[in-house]
Write a structure and sequence with these properties.
heterodimer, A: N-terminal domain of TfIIb, Dimethylsulfoxide Reductase, domain 2, 4 domains, six-stranded mixed sheet, 28 helices, globular, B: mainly alpha, Ferritin, 0% strand, elongated, oxidoreductase activity (chain A)
């Protein structure tokens, strides 16, 4: 297999009947010139290039990675790997950062670790002395290891005592966490990938799984091609590969998700597709849900969403009459102004029908990134470690005892600061020390012109740890070279709570070091200590960090106490909670209809979905939720920005199958880069005709924030909508030059799916746009019909 | 009776509050949540005022003279910097509280005169005003440590 998974993204079909086990298929790729017999060692781990986390082994020869193959026995992928998994790792072998860099005279120059760390520690110490902990912030990733997150959590929350810690998970998965907390009392995926194997209806809400989690889509395809396929409903403004297979496709206007969701809930209630016994015993809030959706008829939603009312009815009927329904929900819902409310409505559909906690009936609120879950659970993001409630003094005391610090040191006067606020404080200079690790906000954040100003200004000292020079490292004061995947040992957890151990296969290049080692070095130099003067964190190796994390997670919903590195090595993926009572892990949560909503257990007392204002402990207690799930929604409100005369179209941003985030790794993999080498934008055929735009013509897309130029692909995107992939970081063409500075009030996840834009033709192109033709970005007509080569 | 005067007062104060929210929204664009949330609250306040219009029409003019200095002043400009934003939010908090308690007072009177429609109206819109207050409290509480300790 030299590159076939680029053209044949999902590989050959292996249809299987409902309830059977997904057949195995081992995908393998070895670089040219290397045969299986040449491989000296196969090192176990899992793929880190999407949230699926496919089990695999890394082929090593003479101290270099030379290939990968899927692990047939792994529960996630049954041996399969997607294009990014097979080819993406090669990008780690080019253009790596091998020495620290420091800014001198306005330029980044190479330096040694001693000098770089002295600069970091010098600035950190002087700011802590003069301004205190609130001057410090850490902005991390969804691609680090659990051990790294937990180590940094202890440094930030117990060593320094700053609330300003968040990850780019705020951009990808914050809404999944928020929706779980609002509905079920705490974070934690209820369902399992195995539910896909036996469902009879499959709902994909804003989730282009065919490109974002290709191996999960392969599993779905193998059911769809069976003799007893599930019915498929797809909510997406683009005609994705998922939409092409759908029984019902609802191509809603981007920004109107909550309208269609309120209508679906309305229909379930109006048509009597409600499991009254389940609702009565296991939920609270039905009357309020009924009241808030009473006027949300399919006709009302059809007008707002721009889809036929009969299609909304048909979708509701599939949900209402299915016996085993699985829903997945992703960025199309999460990166939106009413993200949490729309995602809670997905949970509500399942609660109304009692459609969770048994095989084939499940919810998969997706993550975008491979270790997003670990950022959420280990305390570097929007929550305290172990899904603890910052507003519950007992939870804070537990952490203080674990870390042997005064509870007052641990910031818990407010929710942990979100990335939007961190960047605002950095812009204003009240955060004067910002450490960015494993992420590239100068491409991935909204309104990039502003982000460049924030990161390049003198008001804030910026440290960046990364494996490569990126658009972000170029704005930093100190750059630290980090080890990447398979160059260090550690665990990470995928969408359906499957924990994998990635073992170190090769040495990092040059002077690069693992992030845990970098942060521990910083902590030791700073002299962080507990009440008795013992160093914080109290560990050095990854396995020690894992053991410490097991203690922190014990008794909480994400309980790792039954896991060891050895077990993960032997078995491959295991789903948490894994305890002495459930030593093989736990397939599904809430099988007994008891949720994590008891006052002493819950991660939050909840929020008003319209404003994000907290419900508060008193009101929460008064409600007596006590183990029942919470049905809640709010009224639909239009997106922050709507088309007008100057900016008449709706921009949405998204991904392509061949790239990961800002392409640091994937653009350095030959097969992947050639498959999607440069920026494009997508426009519908009617809009293109109206504006005189032909395939490949160079167009300018402008918003109130900025403008970009790129070749146009005439695709099956909805009329009135422009699609732009956000992978490409050149300020002349980056999608996020256009996006706006706004976010969901509860999850604080930025709005990346709606911005009002104008489109104008600049000049004719010299061929088709460089967009893939194998996916949702396929042209509406073959190029032969366009008169262009 | 003074109820008509107070309905006019509520109508005018909702409009004043709407303008104030709009002013804060326009003045704090860089604080994205403040910008978009206060723009939404401004629209809510306008809707509240519009919902009161037919009630005022039905009532006709007030038959008692209004108390001195009846009306509250709205915000016509915003302040700079984090400390300025916090102070602007305090102004909004004060005005929103005024609207909130006035809805309550009107509801009391509506109950006493058994005006079902007016009771319903106060319940419907009073709730949104409470949500505005809850958001303002949360936003100010979240901003307070950074603003009062490290901001310049």
């Amino acid at each position: 297999m030299s590159g076939e998974r680029v053209a044949d993204i999902w590989g050959p079909r292996a249809p299987f009947p409902s309830g059977a086990s997904w057949p195995r298929r081992v995908d393998q790729y070895l670089v040219d010139g290397v045969a299986e017999a040449d491989v000296q060692e196969w090192v176990r781990g899992a793929c880190l290039l999407c949230s699926n986390g496919c089990g695999l082994e890394v082929a090593v020869r003479d101290g270099r990675m030379v290939g990968v193959r899927g692990r047939a026995e792994d529960r996630v992928n049954h041996g399969r790997l997607g294009p990014k998994g097979l080819y993406g790792w090669q990008g780690q072998q080019y253009d790596r950062l091998t020495t620290p860099l420091i800014r001198e005279g306005g330029r980044l120059v190479e330096t040694d670790w001693e000098t770089a760390m002295a600069a970091v520690v010098g600035r950190s110490r002087s700011l802590l002395e003069t301004k205190g902990p609130l001057s410090h912030a850490f902005y991390t990733s969804g691609q680090l290891m659990l051990e790294e997150y937990y180590t940094l959590c202890v440094i930030g929350k117990a060593g320094i005592g700053t609330p300003h810690m968040d990850g780019n998970t705020r951009l990808c998965t914050a809404t999944a966490a928020s929706a779980f907390q609002e509905s079920f009392g705490s974070d934690g995926q209820p369902g399992s990938y195995t539910d896909v194997d036996s469902c009879d209806a499959l709902f994909l809400f804003g989730h282009n799984v065919a490109e974002t989690q290709t191996v999960l889509w392969t599993r779905m395809l193998d059911r769809l091609d069976a003799g007893d396929p599930p019915r498929l409903v797809c909510v997406d403004p683009r005609r994705t590969k998922v939409a092409e297979r759908a029984t019902v496709h609802l191509p809603v206007r981007n920004g109107t998700n909550l309208a269609v969701m309120n209508a679906l809930v309305h229909e379930l209630i109006a048509r009597g597709w409600v499991n009254e016994g389940y609702v009565r015993t296991h939920t609270v809030g039905f009357d309020e849900l009924d009241r808030l959706t009473r006027d949300a008829t399919p006709e009302w939603a059809a007008e707002i969403c721009g889809v036929p009312a009969r299609d909304i009815r048909a979708a509701a009927e599939i949900f209402g009459t299915g016996e085993r329904v699985v829903s997945t929900c992703s960025m199309g819902f999460y990166q939106s102004h009413q993200a949490t409310a729309a995602s809670c409505q997905v949970n509500n559909l399942h609660l109304l029908r009692g459609m969770l906690g048994r095989p084939g009936a499940g919810i998969l609120q997706m993550n975008g990134q491979p270790s997003a879950e670990n950022n959420r659970e280990a305390g570097c993001g929007p929550a305290l470690p172990g899904f603890r409630n910052w507003d519950n003094p007992d939870h804070v005391r537990e952490l203080a005892e674990l870390w042997n610090v005064d509870p007052l040191v641990i910031p818990h006067w407010s929710a942990p600061t979100d990335a939007n606020a961190i960047l605002r404080f950095a812009e204003q200079g009240s955060i004067g020390f910002l450490w960015i690790a494993g992420t590239n906000p100068a491409v991935s954040q909204t309104d990039l012109a502003r982000i460049r100003r924030v990161l390049s200004g003198d008001q804030c000292f910026v440290v960046v740890s990364d494996g490569y020079r990126t658009e972000t490292t170029e704005l930093a004061d100190v750059v630290l070279p980090a080890a990447l995947w398979a160059e260090k040992t550690g665990t990470f957890t995928n969408v359906d709570r499957t924990v994998h151990l990635q073992e170190k296969a090769v040495e990092p290049p040059g002077q690069a070091r693992g992030d845990q080692a970098i942060w521990t070095d910083y902590a030791r130099r700073m002299g962080f200590a507990d009440k008795d003067g013992h160093p914080l964190p109290a560990w050095d190796t990854s396995e020690q960090a894992f053991e410490a994390w097991k203690a922190a997670s014990a008794g909480r919903p994400c309980d790792y106490s039954g896991l060891t590195y050895q077990k993960l090595h032997d078995v491959g993926g295991v789903q948490w909670p894994c305890t002495s009572e459930a030593p093989n892990g736990t397939e599904r949560l809430f099988t007994d209809g008891v949720f994590n909503t008891a006052v002493e257990k819950c991660e939050t007392y909840g929020h008003h979905l319209a404003t994000g204002a907290p419900v508060g402990e008193t009101a929460y207690r008064a409600r007596g939720v006590d183990g029942r799930a919470i049905l809640k929604t709010t009224a639909y409100d239009h997106p922050y920005e709507e088309p007008d005369a100057t900016y008449p179209m709706r921009l949405t941003t998204g991904r392509t199958v061949y790239h990961w985030h800002t392409r640091t790794k994937t653009k350095r993999s030959r097969q992947l880069n050639e498959a999607a080498p440069a920026m494009w934008v997508e426009i519908s055929a009617p809009d293109a005709q109206r504006l005189g735009i032909a395939e490949g013509d160079i167009v300018r897309v402008a918003s109130r924030r900025g403008s970009i130029e790129a070749p146009a692909r005439i695709s099956d995107v909805r009329e009135g909508v422009i699609f732009a992939p956000w992978h490409y970081g050149d300020p002349e063409s980056a999608a996020n030059e256009l996006t706006l500075n706004g976010w969901d009030p509860v999850s604080k996840q930025p709005e990346l799916k709606v911005a009002a834009v104008s489109v104008t033709l600049i000049r004719p192109g010299d061929g088709p746009a460089p967009a893939p033709t194998t996916t949702a970005s396929a042209p509406v007509r073959p190029f032969a019909d366009t008169g262009r080569e | 009776m003074h109820l008509v005067t107070y309905l006019h007062f509520l109508h005018a104060t909702e409009e004043t509050l709407s303008t104030s929210y709009r002013t804060v929204s326009d003045g704090h664009v860089a604080d994205g949540d403040v910008h978009w949330t206060t723009a939404r609250f401004a629209r809510q306040c306008t809707a509240h005022a519009q919902a009161l219009a037919p009630v005022l029409e039905r009532c006709g003019p007030a038959d008692e003279p209004a108390p001195d200095r009846l009306h509250a002043q709205g915000m016509t400009s915003t302040r700079d910097g984090p400390a300025g934003l916090l102070r602007d939010l305090l102004d909004l908090y004060q005005l929103t509280n005024l609207v909130d308690i006035t809805w309550t007072l009107v509801r009391q009177a509506a109950s006493a005169i058994r005006d079902r429609d007016l009771i319903h109206l106060t319940q419907q819109y009073g709730e949104e005003t409470k949500d505005q207050l809850d958001w303002l409290r949360m936003r100010m509480k979240a901003a307070a440590p950074q603003t009062l300790i490290v901001a310049t």
